[in-house]
Amino acid sequence: MSVAANLSASRKMVQQLRCELDIKRLKVSQAATDLKQFCLQNAQHDPLLTGIHPNTNPFRPAKPCLLL
């Protein structure tokens, strides 16, 4: 690796580290608490937990067509 390439790679690394320095970080315990609270607050709107009403289910089986 040439000196110029090494210098360029080092500058990119320093720039990336400076960007990451400004990121606000949360403790994992706080993030887990927030996520749990969000899930509990929105559980009543989750169709995977409450089910889908048969009249509004877009994936219900199609009714057979009867022609007389």
TrEMBL record:
PROSITE patterns xrefs: G_PROTEIN_GAMMA
Membrane topology designation: Lipid-anchor
GO cellular component entries: heterotrimeric G-protein complex
GO terms assigned for molecular function: G-protein beta-subunit binding
Segments forming domain G protein gamma: 3-68
Principal place of residence: membrane
Record keywords: Cell membrane, Lipoprotein, Membrane, Methylation, Prenylation, Transducer
Record carries keyword DNA-binding: no
Keyword Membrane (UniProt): yes
Protein's cellular compartments: Cell membrane
One GO process term, biological-process aspect: G protein-coupled receptor signaling pathway
Domain of life: Eukaryota
Family: Belongs to the G protein gamma family.
Its job: Guanine nucleotide-binding proteins (G proteins) are involved as a modulator or transducer in various transmembrane signaling systems. The beta and gamma chains are required for the GTPase activity, for replacement of GDP by GTP, and for G protein-effector interaction.
The protein's assembly and partners: G proteins are composed of 3 units; alpha, beta and gamma.
UniProt-recorded name of the protein: Guanine nucleotide-binding protein subunit gamma
Organism of derivation: Scyliorhinus torazame
Source species taxonomy: Eukaryota, Metazoa, Chordata, Craniata, Vertebrata
